[in-house]
Amino acid sequence: MVVCGDNALAQRVTKELASVYRQHVTVVLPSLRGGSHGPQIAGLAGRRGMSVETVEARVPDDHALIQAGIERASALALTSGDDQLNIYIALRARRINPQVRLVIRMFNRNLGRYLADLLDRAALLSGARPSGDGDGDAAGSPGEVPDATTTVLSDSDTAAPSIVAAAVVGSDKVMHADGLLLRAKERTLRTVDRRNPLCTLALMPATEDTRNSEGASDDSDDEPDEEQHRDVRRRRGASGGREGDGGPVLLPDQEDLAGLPPEREAVVLEAITRSSRTSAVRAPRLPRMLAVKHLFSRRLRYSMLAMTGLVLALAAVNWFVSRETPLHAAYVTLLDLFAINDPNIEEPPAEQVLQLLAGLAGMMLLPLLLAVVLESYGSFRKAAALPVPPRGLSGHVVLVGLGKVGKHVLERLLELNIPVVCIEQNEEARGMAVARRHRVPTLIADVTDDGVLELAKIKRSRALLALTSTDGINLEASLNARQIKPELRVVMRLFDDAFAATVYRTLRDSYPAAQTRSRSVSALAAPAFAGAMMGRQVLGSISVGRRVLVFAAVEVRGNPLLQDRTVEQAFQTESWRVVALDTASEEERRQDLSSVSSTGAGELEWRLHPGYVLKAGDRVVVAATRRGLSRLLAAGPAQRGSRPVRRAEGASGDDAARLPDPRTP
């Protein structure tokens, strides 16, 4: 594996590949002694148990790439913040090695799509086989043509689901897929069915009380037979997790759950739907729906009411004096009011005085009409631009910062139908267009100014997301919000890991009843970049104890472990479980299953019947261990005949991600 970059993302991707996937990694960077993260990457190169090499080059040109071994590399990650530099390196790398898998960090997603298509076409013309599903192996054996894929990722877009999850459900065990938030929650077996979970992910180790209750129930017979003894041993093994480590049992079957005490805990997968906050107050969607009180100020409304009363009084007096019909009296009064009537020289003095009063009232009407026009115009402009937080708004999320990260977080919140109030100082920020398009209540102000958080109704909000590019502003906004509402859930974007850890511990100790989360975009995005380098369409991962479950999209076609099997038959305990089915046709399938479809409706069916037979054209989402996912992908047609991804010498680990040789039984 080759990584190009000198930033936090490059450091974390390198660490992920070397420590989790046990890969040999070569990092190309300008300097090991300076730069943004040169010393940190140099520390990884010298760490025991990791196979990391470095190549110093001011610009990753052809010579530097060849020195890094691009000709025989399985994958190349380009993590620079400069889109043009990443494009240059990608084109050079594809020319040198048409078979290498490319993972490119791009801010411009439209340009990224065009670039991915161009690079895949180049790989196709050179003899490699582009594969859009990302399930291919990394490097082919001699005589075999491996899959050459190009994956374009945005670190902020990749990190957005985890940031939203921390704010909405306050949990780290969360995955975002198909416009839904999926969380892993520990429940007792007594309460599992009440929550209607999607599936059971793990059976937690038994406590001393549950072990005693299991032993009492198992040994109730005086002379149990041999089969009962075997059942007791099996259940006690399940209660302690995997043999020898006392950990949780991942992906248990129904036999593991049968007969266990109701106090036993299990980790289940629960869905948080898009319409979980239907009672929230929304801002007006169209200017024409504005009420009169929003168009005109109270003083202007009172002035208009007084002028109307004055005109009616003049019309009544005119009707009484002239003895004409009421309609004629009102008409004459309006003519006098607008100064378009002839002078009443030959009329009685009463009508002359009345005409003078009407003319005076007409002079007062002119500035009033001008004020009505100006104020209504200003109100329409204000309503068409950005609304203010409406009255009665509660249970919303306050989002501070609509930059690169805030824009993607706002899009995720809107997909989940969660009410949000934004605070942004720069009217030209990236996310302002999204806020205007969806008419999101937004305050154009500095969040550090007094009263800004109060205007955002922070007291009635559910969480604060401080996502500006400055650590100091994020910290100040978080501390101010905690002063206003101590139990508020706070998620901060902090760059420095040591600073983030110190802030987190201090806030946790100072506000023990509140939830505080600090997030680094590079730390959240690194697993997705590493997974793409391994050639897997990984939707997310959830940790259970010290083990990890990976959720990935897998094609059924040509995979004997899935095709023509029922959902129940395709399940392998401690390895993988089919949790969802893509219901879209093969021509209309989305490459990115983490986002909601363009129609707004989900395309994944999460509650599959155990007897459903998986067909060749199906695509499924599986929950699997890293080792189980490797076995499952190795059985697919794209994996046969190719050698596995090489692991670093001496690497070990139960769940290390490697693709076993299909020739091995």
UniProtKB/TrEMBL annotation:
<dbReference type="InterPro" id="IPR050721">
    <property type="entry name" value="Trk_Ktr_HKT_K-transport"/>
</dbReference>
<feature type="region of interest" description="Disordered">
    <location>
        <begin position="130"/>
        <end position="154"/>
    </location>
</feature>
<dbReference type="Pfam" id="PF02254">
    <property type="entry name" value="TrkA_N"/>
</dbReference>
<keyword id="KW-0812">Transmembrane</keyword>
<protein>
    <submittedName>
        <fullName>Potassium transporter TrkA</fullName>
    </submittedName>
</protein>
<keyword id="KW-1133">Transmembrane helix</keyword>
<dbReference type="InterPro" id="IPR003148">
    <property type="entry name" value="RCK_N"/>
</dbReference>
<feature type="compositionally biased region" description="Basic and acidic residues">
    <location>
        <begin position="655"/>
        <end position="665"/>
    </location>
</feature>
<feature type="compositionally biased region" description="Acidic residues">
    <location>
        <begin position="216"/>
        <end position="226"/>
    </location>
</feature>
<feature type="region of interest" description="Disordered">
    <location>
        <begin position="200"/>
        <end position="256"/>
    </location>
</feature>
<keyword id="KW-0472">Membrane</keyword>
<feature type="domain" description="RCK N-terminal">
    <location>
        <begin position="394"/>
        <end position="512"/>
    </location>
</feature>
<dbReference type="InterPro" id="IPR036291">
    <property type="entry name" value="NAD(P)-bd_dom_sf"/>
</dbReference>
<feature type="transmembrane region" description="Helical">
    <location>
        <begin position="353"/>
        <end position="374"/>
    </location>
</feature>
<feature type="region of interest" description="Disordered">
    <location>
        <begin position="634"/>
        <end position="665"/>
    </location>
</feature>
<dbReference type="GO" id="GO:0006813">
    <property type="term" value="P:potassium ion transport"/>
</dbReference>
<feature type="transmembrane region" description="Helical">
    <location>
        <begin position="302"/>
        <end position="321"/>
    </location>
</feature>
